[in-house]
Amino acid sequence: MGFTLLELMIVMIIVGILAALTLPSFSGSQERALGREAGATLKLISAAEKNYRMENGTGGFYGSTDVGAINQNLTLSLVEIKWDYNITTTAAPTPECTGFCFNITANRKTSNAYYAGCTYWLTYDSGISSNPENASRSHFGMCP
Fold first, then answer.
1. In terms of DSSP H, where are the helices of the chain?
2. pLDDT digits (tens, 9 = 90+) for 18-61
3. Which of 13, 28, 82, 125 sits a CA distance of 20 to 30 A from 35?
4. Cα distance between residue 60 and residue 50, in whole Å
5. Shortest CA distance to 53 belongs to which of 97, 98, 102, 86?
6. Domain ranges within the chain, ordered by starting residue
7. Phi-psi bin for 96: left (phi > 0), alpha (psi -120 to 50), beta?
8. How far is residue 32's CA from residue 108's CA, in Å, rounded to a whole number?
């Protein structure tokens, strides 16, 4: 014996409703995971910047918008699939920076208008304090 067409259609409607209910939840979970990925990568780049400064003894930090150059100079293996990474540096004190500073940004690459322009950033200022925990400021509030 088989199923009737009506029974099959009811099952397909129920499956469709369940899929429609779980898809937004999955999308939000995926974006939260990507946000955590960006935050972890920014912290990794920050640690690599501090190592670069100690190893090279230049007193300054390395800045670039080219991931290949960032990977080579900071001994990293970043991949720009979901994020564009940029590092800007300040070598002299400014109103925003009291010592040697670097600012790392991760900009979301997406065709989805809801998440376009999503940016995370982390700033390190060597003049704030001798304690590295006090010298780092990060912002993770730009993404939904």
1. 5-56, 67-74, 132-135
2. 988 887 777 777 777 888 888 888 888 888 888 888 888 766 67
3. 125
4. 9
5. 102
6. 37-89+105-113+121-128+139-144
7. alpha
8. 12
pTM listed for this prediction: 0.70
Using alpha carbons only, give the angle 108, 33, 68 rounded to the nearest 5 degrees: 45
Return d(Cα 106, Cα 143) in angstroms, integer: 11
C-alpha radius of gyration, the chain, whole number: 22
Tokens coding 64: 């670039």
Q: Which two tokens stand for residue 44?
A: 């990794």
Averaged pLDDT for residues 12-19: 92
User: Comparing 6-10, 25-29, 82-86, which segment has the lowest mean pLDDT?
Assistant: 25-29
